[in-house]
Amino acid sequence: xxxxxxxxxxxxxxxxxxxxxxxxxxxxxxxxxxxxxxxxxxxxxxxxxxxxxxxxxxxxxxxxxxxxxxxxxxxxxxxxxxxxxxxxxxxxxxxxxxxxxxxxxxxxxxxxxxxxxxxxxxxxxxxxxxxxxxxxxxxxxxxxxxxxxxxxxxxxxxxxxxxxxxxxxxxxxxxxxxxxxxxxxxxxxxxxxxxxxxxxxxxxxxxxxxxxxxxxxxxxx
Length: 221
Ligand SMILES: Nc1ncnc2c1ncn2[C@@H]1O[C@H](COP(=O)(O)OP(=O)(O)OP(=O)(O)O)[C@@H](O)[C@H]1O
Ligand SMILES: [Mg+2]
Prior knowledge:
This protein has 221 residues and is an alpha/beta fold. Helices cover 33% and strands 25% of the residues. The protein has helices spanning 47-54, 75-81, 101-111, 116-129, 145-157, 175-188, 199-205; strands at 8-16, 22-31, 36-40, 62-67, 70-72, 85-88, 163-167, 192-195, 208-213, 216-219. Helix 3 (101-111) packs across helix 4 (116-129) and helix 3 runs parallel beside helix 5. The two termini are 15 Å apart. The mean pLDDT is 94. This is ABC transporter ATP-binding protein. GO terms for molecular function: ATP binding; ATP hydrolysis activity; ATPase-coupled transmembrane transporter activity. It holds the Pfam family ABC_tran.
């Protein structure tokens, strides 16, 4: 295991939803620079919830979340660091909220302080890379499921994140788009947490696999 400070560390994290379903139980996890990991687990085991805890979108019941070596407790703590982490939500409708595709993909770069012209240049570049330039002026909510997923990914990559958290990113994608996504992720070579049920995809993208079981992370051989 690398000796440097982890990019993401969960220390004894516990969390349960209001209905008392436990998704994390004194869970420990670390993601280091240069590392990409996959998390699998049965439906409802808490994978998506875990990503939301890392991003500070939900608050841990106990334990600590560290991002880039900093302990994060408050919204102010998380907001300092979450802009450096690109999260693709399991449901693209949670990610996309602008009227058109180009506005959605420009939103992050504009928030990062880019001029409108520079944001459009960056957005068009990533849409081209993902082979969806033709969707630029489409109404976002009228896109197909697979198109929405590619646009959601584009909106995250346009922010040039340092870490990727991808929640079942290949759901709805046809074989060609799946292949393209895998190639792009390989080329980006960013530290990554990939939630994915497809062993073949995991094998191509990550160096370590975990299973989320009864609220704890079990490393797979
Ligand atoms: N907002 C919520 N309020 C109450 N319970 C919730 C909420 N979101 C999720 N849960 C519950 O928490 C548990 C974990 O849900 P989560 O979405 O994290 O699972 P998952 O492992 O991502 O599942 P899937 O493989 O189906 O995506 C489930 O039992 C779910 O019903
Ligand atoms: Mg999920």
